[in-house]
Amino acid sequence: MAEIYRASTTAPVNIAVIKYWGKRDPKLNLPTNSSLSVTLSQSDLRTHTTASCSPSYPSSDSLLLNGSPQDVSGARTQACFRELRSLRKQLEDADSSLPKLSTFPLKIVSENNFPTAAGLASSAAGFAALVRAIANLYELPSSPTELSRIARQGSGSACRSLFGGYVRWEQGSTVDGSDSVAFQVAPAEHWPGMRAVILVVSAAKKGVSSTTGMQTTVATSSLFTARANETVPRRMKEMQDAIKNKDFETFGKTTMMDSNSFHATCLDTYPPIFYLNDVSRAAIKVVEQINKRAGKIIAAYTFDAGPNAVVYYEEQNEKEVAGLFKAMLGENEGWKGVRGDGVQANGESLEEV
Ligand code: DP6
């Protein structure tokens, strides 16, 4: 029987505190601004992926997500497969004793430990895990930053899920996107008290996909130009300094202002895009009250392309922030406590079964 080669990995979800919104090249997912995110704990939100390949597999590549077959013919998945195969081929060309894995069909099996449709950045963890699992399978010597160039082509935000802690995605300036990659700004241990809670307002799939929303924003919003060219570059610097100094007040204020700026840009898009709903706005008010009562910023909300809130806070304020939200909504009404952590890899060596 022909051998089966296999490797597994997990990748976490990341939530941006300076958002990616706008593509200068939609095919390569090259962004119009740099962005910065915090990687969440894998015990709460992560994708586990096993990549295998074998000459005995049926001729086409396949992907199973939470037990359902997925279409792999899309340009984004194809770009990831193609790039990874070409890196493997370079190794095979340099060492003829290596098995020709680049020529075998791939079978990818992925499981999320959270609802895929809940709008919780599932594509970020999904593509990061897919790229990392295949890179492990192919025994590529590539660094996470090199792999981030490939994961970005699957989904822009996925390039940041190759790292734990605090991660910057550099917008880059080249046409081929070789410098549009992610770097770790600081590991999770740098600021071990950082915490986040997620308020799942709705488990429904997003109304307007990020890709479509971004394209319409770039084409129609005048606020967008100021955001991409002036506001974000300034805030990227402020945010990195805040992280370096573990300055929660600046971190929190900048996080909330960037979320507001992103959603204002969505409203300024024509036709307008609404991601926040009444419950989202109620969550903003609660955070404002928490901060007012504390006399300083101890909680910071942020919203992606959907109504669910992510609220960052520090461990010492657990009671005032997460405790209050949990007491208001009850432990079982869609709340999850999460914190920063790193990508864990396992099964990195090739197995023959
Ligand atoms: C609002 O990475 O999902 O979450 O590149 O089209 O796959 P594509 O978009 P995606 O967009 C994420 C947008 C965001 C902000 C962010 O994560 O930075």
Automatic annotation (TrEMBL):
Pfam families: MDD_C (PF18376), MVD-like_N (PF22700)
Span list, region Disordered: 49-68
Gene Ontology molecular-function annotations: ATP binding; diphosphomevalonate decarboxylase activity
Keywords: ATP-binding, Lipid biosynthesis, Lipid metabolism, Lyase, Nucleotide-binding, Steroid biosynthesis, Steroid metabolism, Sterol biosynthesis, Sterol metabolism
GO cellular component: cytosol
Catalytic function, reaction form: (R)-5-diphosphomevalonate + ATP = isopentenyl diphosphate + ADP + phosphate + CO2
InterPro entries named among the record's database cross-references: GHMP_kinase_C_sf (IPR036554), Mev_decarb (IPR005935), Mev_diP_decarb (IPR029765), MVD-like_N (IPR053859), Mvd1_C (IPR041431), Ribosomal_Su5_D2-typ_SF (IPR020568), Ribsml_uS5_D2-typ_fold_subgr (IPR014721)
Family listed: Belongs to the diphosphomevalonate decarboxylase family.
Protein name: Diphosphomevalonate decarboxylase
Species for this entry: Zopfia rhizophila CBS 207.26
